[in-house]
Specification:
The structure is a homodimer. The first copy, chain A, has helices at 7-10, 20-28, 113-119, 121-147, 150-165, 181-188, 192-204, 220-227, and strands at 31-35, 40-42, 50-56, 58-64, 70-77, 81-82, 96-99, 103-109, 166-168, 173-175, 208-211, 214-217. The first copy, chain A, is an alpha+beta fold. In chain A, the strands form 3 sheets. The first copy, chain A, has a 4-stranded antiparallel beta sheet, with no helix packed on it. A 4-stranded antiparallel beta sheet of chain A has the order 2-7-4-5. Chain A has a 4-stranded antiparallel beta sheet with strand order 9-10-12-11. Chain A binds a DNA duplex through α7.
Chain lengths: 233, 233
DNA sequence: TTTTAAGTTTGTCGAAGCGCAAATCCAAAT
DNA sequence: ATTTGGATTTGCGCTTCGACAAACTTAAAA
């Protein structure tokens, strides 16, 4: 196992406020691993042997339906915990986790969850705040799916990605990991065809630029107007 | 304030496993109140002054969109905590809570949340398990909204209500609180018209019986077939 | 009992967006 | 440089379901 330095996790939200020597102790139980793009970190239904911290990269969390359809539950950015089935009282992972780009991931044995949360109350607090935020997020998405049209939902998804993981470029804000039309359709409950049409339209109107698996938002506020439901012609 | 007996909450899930004398202490800080049907217990956006335990009745938790549309986030049954903004790291309630029938509700000042969770780890554990379950639930609903047609979603919603809160009668399983077509449409992201049409169809086929604000499921498994997506004629 | 309001049913119409299909484009691998 | 497979674009028909409208039913209020 490689040597892990406390600085790795010192200023990562879930571990913020924990003393340096304890960080070292925590890391002594952790395992670091690289996952190249596309590789699966864990699978839906699999026993939750570990929980994870994303040190670098982006992870796609995907739910699969009985008949094979996929729905993207969320994207994980670096500094976030994921696969924390223990925090939800589950003993199997409820979704797949796939590296959206090359990633560096820290993992701990699931059996340590209770020990850690008991020993580090700030970690516990931080974590449960995260779970709370994700619940909020999910509820908001339900409201969105129930009340907004596809066009608005797609605009929203693109905006959210740009805001959360965007990198400023000459053209605007670039979503900094490869994302296909299909991916966006799986985030918004539509088809890749519809997403393609929408992006084409927006590209013609100068709101976005896009190539294969790349999207740059050039006119965020105009997109926001669409997301808000302006049903203009 | 009325006298509250420890037996009130002794076998309610969140408080299970806490010693009797501690229950008494907990109750000394609680307030009991009756809410008649239709009354609002708290409102979306309001400062989260309290958290609640439903002792008897059913509560409807409703999200309101900027343009006034309503989406039912969930129904709370007796024995469940609700309005636990503190557990989610929020300082405002994220939804409205309305009594779906006459209810009896226990409430604690929100300021006690930290004290209580710290003093009673089993309460904390139980609570976070609840939050986890609700997150799961929300994710499942997102998948449903993304992949299933209205007919399936409505069938599912009716089945879930019947299973969770149903009362056996001569005709079948009766959802034991008043629920309108509109309510069901707000649970499933459709219109009351569509729900009405579906229920009419199902009534003709003998799967359900329904009157104003009453639904009885007579053929649960046939409904389940529809929920699963059999697109028969 | 009569009135009133909320809830429900049913019809018609039209649009949003999906399924299917086919052409094209692009990037990586050989 | 060529090949190959995945990703994207675009067209077309069709289904699902929402919007609008109007009649009707039921329960509670006056």
């Amino acid at each position: 196992m490689s040597l892990l330095d406390a600085s790795l996790i010192a200023d990562v939200p879930p571990f913020r406020g924990i003393e340096r020597e304890n960080l070292v102790a925590l890391l002594s139980n952790a395992r670091s691993e690289r996952y190249e793009i596309g590789r699966t970190i864990f699978s839906q239904g699999e026993a939750a042997h570990s929980f994870f911290l994303l040190l670098d990269g982006h992870i796609r969390v995907v739910k699969v339906t009985p008949d094979g359809e996929q729905v993207i539950a969320r994207y994980i950015s670096s500094g976030e915990l994921f696969g924390i089935a223990q925090a939800l009282g589950l003993d199997c992972y409820p979704a797949n986790a796939v590296a959206a780009v090359d990633c560096v991931v820290l993992s701990w044995p699931g059996s340590l969850w209770t020990t850690i949360t008991e020993k580090y109350p700030t970690f516990a607090t931080n974590t449960y705040r995260t779970v709370g935020a994700r619940l909020q997020d999910a509820q908001d998405r339900i409201v969105e799916m129930a009340t907004e049209r596809v066009e608005q939902r797609v605009a929203n998804a693109v905006l959210k990605l740009a805001n959360q993981t965007g990198r400023k470029t000459d053209d605007g804000i670039l979503i900094d990991f490869p994302i296909s039309r299909q991916d966006i359709s799986e985030m918004t409950g539509t088809t890749l065809h519809t997403v393609s049409r929408l992006l084409s339209t927006w590209e013609n109107e100068g709101l976005v630029k896009s190539q294969r698996k790349k999207i740059t938002v050039t006119e965020g506020h105009k997109l926001a107007v669409i997301a808000a439901g302006k049903s203009d012609s």
